Each structure stands twice: as structure tokens, then as C-alpha cells.
């Protein structure tokens, strides 16, 4: 699929929390685009680097399939899909190349405020609602705790009140959403931020040089921001 392309393709979030900061980072790295009307594909004007604007969940798969060379996505999404592939015994297909310093959040366990939290042993036999089952299961295994993982596709924070689960495992940034749902964070299982994702194997053709150039420029921008 990636064969015969001499332009680099980067997938970023079309909307959402990471779309704008990802564009800003790439613009600071010297990229410029002519945004097309449908805005799904943006042809790069300053360098042969094009943008694909997609849902964040699609980014790891686009890299895996070779449709895109690089992507900007939350570490939480990248690791969740990596866990899914591992579960299915499929080889890893993308990995974190750089942490980008924006989109910071934690994947945390949160319990009803009334709970007297004693520690992870308290989770035994409990039902935990999440949209991140692979990371939660891996963490539970590492803690040697047996709990039921209730996989939801959204609105996780309301699950305890609806009786679907006893507690949740979800992304937290300010904590306002948890507080609004009478929940409190008790354990962080992952520190996440936006990352530059790329293939596990180095890019092996003419685009490698382009990727190197872009990486050097991104590193320069990140150094200045620090
Ligand atoms: O449409 P698309 O599928 O592309 O977007 P999305 O809705 O799946 O993702 P989006 O835009 O919400 O988030 C993109 C990425 O931003 C996530 O994968 C994280 O890496 C990162 N990020 C950073 C967050 C948050 N902070 C965050 N607070 N993603 C989600 N949240 C949610 C959280 O799930 C909870 O519902 O915000 C709520 C909590 O926020 P606080 O501030 O109340 O704690
Ligand atoms: Zn999404």
C-alpha cells in the first residue's frame, strides 16, 4: 500500500481535543497546507507532506495498514489498540516515536465519593466500567486482582449511578467530570499525552529522509516550547 508513494502522509484528528494543537505543532515545524473543501485530505504546500484528517481511533490502524506513515494521537488510544492486537496475537504495528507535550490526561480508576478507599485489594470482585478494557485488564493482571471489566463505548462516568458497574476507569484531566458525577479518582494507571506515532520498523524508502527532516523540526519546536 505504501509502495510507490514519494510523499509523506500524517494522520491527525479532524476535530476533538488534539486536532488544533496537532495542526499548530506541524505548522510550527514548517508545514503548510491547502485545506480542501471536504477537509479530509490536505495537500502539503511547503514540503511533500500531506495531512489526513480522521477520527483519533482510526489513526493506529491507518499506520498499521500503511495508509499513513505517521500520526498524532493520544498515547491512551495507541496503547489500547496495541493491547487489542496483542490480545488477538497480531504483531505490533505502530509505536510511540515522540511525546508531544499537549493533550495531557490520566487514565484513572474512580470510585463513588462515599467509598473509604483502602487500596487495590478492594477491587476484587468489583465491576469496573471502561472504554479502555485492554489497559485495564493488563493493569489488573499486574496487580494480581480479579475484577469484572464492563466494556462501554461512552458515558462511562454515569455507569455507577445506573448500576452498570461499581466503579470506573476513564480519562481525567481537570477532574470536574468525576466530581459532577460524585466520583473520586483513586489510582492512575496511565499518564497520557499526544504522541507522534509511527511504524515499528523504520520507514525504509525515500520517505525516510522526509520523516527524519520532519522529526528534527518537531524536536526543535518541542525544545523551544520547553
Ligand atoms: O471524534 P474523535 O473520535 O476523533 O474524538 P474523541 O471524542 O474520541 O476524542 P477527544 O477529542 O475527546 O480526545 C482526544 C484525546 O485527547 C484523548 O484520546 C486523550 O488522549 C486526550 N484527552 C486529554 C482527553 C482528555 N484530556 C479528557 N479529559 N480525552 C478525553 N477527556 C474526557 C474524559 O474522557 C472525560 O469524559 O473529558 C472528560 C474528563 O475531563 P475533566 O477535565 O472533567 O477531568
Ligand atoms: Zn475517538
What portion of residues is helical? 25-40%
Mean pLDDT: 95
Q: Name the strands of the widest sheet in spatial order.
A: 2-3-4-1-5-12-6
Specify the CATH homologous superfamily of the largest domain. Periplasmic binding protein-like II
- From the alpha carbons, calculate the radius of gyration and give it in angstroms: 19 Å
CATH class of the largest domain: Alpha Beta
Number of helices: 7
Low-confidence stretches: none
3D shape = elongated
Query: Structural class of the secondary structure composition?
Result: alpha/beta
Strand content of the residues, in percent? 25-35%
CATH architecture of the largest domain: 3-Layer(aba) Sandwich
General description of the model:
- This protein is of the alpha/beta class and 226 residues long.
- It folds into two domains: 8-103 and 193-225, D-Maltodextrin-Binding Protein, domain 2, CATH 3.40.190.10; 105-192, D-Maltodextrin-Binding Protein, domain 2 (3-Layer(aba) Sandwich), CATH 3.40.190.10.
- 31% of the residues lie in helices and 30% in strands.
- It is built from seven helices and twelve strands.
- It has helices at 16-28, 59-64, 75-87, 133-143, 159-162, 176-180, 207-225; strands at 8-13, 33-35, 41-44, 49-54, 70-74, 94-99, 105-112, 127-130, 148-151, 167-172, 183-192, 194-199.
- It has a seven-stranded mixed β-sheet, with helices on both faces. A five-stranded mixed β-sheet has the order 9-8-10-7-11.
- α4 (133-143) links the parallel β8 (127-130) and β9.
- The radius of gyration is 19 Å and the shape is elongated.
- The two termini are 37 Å apart.
- The mean pLDDT is 95.
- The structure holds phosphoribosyl ATP (PRT) and zinc ion (ZN).
- Zinc ion (ZN) binds at residues 55-57.
Amino acid at each position: 500500500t505504501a509502495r510507490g508513494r514519494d510523499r509523506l502522509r500524517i494522520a491527525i484528528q479532524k476535530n476533538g481535543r488534539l486536532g488544533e494543537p496537532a495542526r499548530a505543532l506541524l505548522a510550527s515545524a514548517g508545514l503548510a497546507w491547502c485545506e480542501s473543501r471536504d477537509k479530509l485530505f490536505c495537500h502539503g504546500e511547503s514540503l511533500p507532506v500531506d495531512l489526513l484528517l480522521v477520527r483519533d481511533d482510526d489513526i493506529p490502524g491507518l499506520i498499521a495498514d500503511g495508509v499513513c506513515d505517521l500520526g498524532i494521537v493520544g498515547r491512551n488510544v495507541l496503547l489500547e489498540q496495541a493491547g487489542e492486537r496483542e490480545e488477538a496475537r497480531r504483531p505490533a504495528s505502530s509505536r510511540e516515536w515522540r511525546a508531544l507535550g499537549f493533550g495531557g490526561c490520566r487514565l484513572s480508576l474512580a470510585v463513588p465519593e462515599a467509598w473509604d478507599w483502602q487500596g487495590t485489594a478492594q477491587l476484587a470482585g468489583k465491576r469496573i466500567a471502561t472504554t479502555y478494557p485492554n489497559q485495564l485488564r493488563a493493569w489488573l493482571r499486574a496487580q494480581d486482582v480479579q475484577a469484572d471489566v464492563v466494556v462501554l463505548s461512552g458515558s462511562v462516568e454515569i455507569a455507577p449511578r445506573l448500576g452498570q458497574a461499581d466503579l470506573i476507569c476513564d480519562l481525567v484531566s481537570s477532574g470536574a467530570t468525576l466530581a459532577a458525577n460524585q466520583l473520586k479518582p483513586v489510582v492512575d494507571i496511565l499518564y497520557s499525552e499526544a504522541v507522534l506515532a509511527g511504524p515499528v520498523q523504520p520507514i525504509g524508502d525515500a520517505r525516510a529522509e522526509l520523516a527524519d527532516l520532519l522529526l528534527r523540526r518537531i524536536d526543535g519546536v518541542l525544545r523551544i516550547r520547553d
